[in-house]
Design brief:
Elements (H helix, E strand, L loop, with lengths): L11 H8 L3 H23 L2 H18 L9 H19 L6 H4 L18 H9 L3 H12 L4 H8 L3 H30 L1
Length: 191
Amino acid sequence: MKLETNSIYIHQDLIISCKNGDQKAFKELYMLYAKSMFNIAFRILKNHDEAEDILQEAFIKAYYKIDQYDFQATFGAWLKKIVVNQALDYLRKESKWNIDELADNDMTDDSEIDWEGIEMKVDIVKKAILNLPTGFRTVASLYLIEGYEHKEIASILSISENTSKSQFHRAKKKIKEYIKKSEAVNDQTII
């Protein structure tokens, strides 16, 4: 019996096969999702080898928990949550990120950042995000790239929603600075 057709049920046949123990089906899911899940881990960890390790651990976890996937969200969203949590757990375990670095940084400055005259190119923005300190990078990646809301980020990171917003605001300032520096370097090399 086929489930109704909509985006939540993408790859449903593969997922059902996985739930029935078909390892080839799981390998197919791995091939479909590995690159995007690696990119998520890499944006959080900023290290290729660590992101590879997290990717493998996340897929192992997904393999053993596939029965818990209930088609309430897309498989990609379910898997992304596993990858994000694995990456954050790794940062905490390796003491590469201290939650206190975020917790005491609530901002009262709600001023918006002026982006006028700033050329926004995806590759430059991604590089800027990778160059952010861990806390800023994590919040910016989760918000800008992964599409989480501040309330969700707060829950994932065990911080307040205001702290998430504050970290994102500061991250935007750093991103703007990086882009301006990048533009200045490009302007000098053109001359």
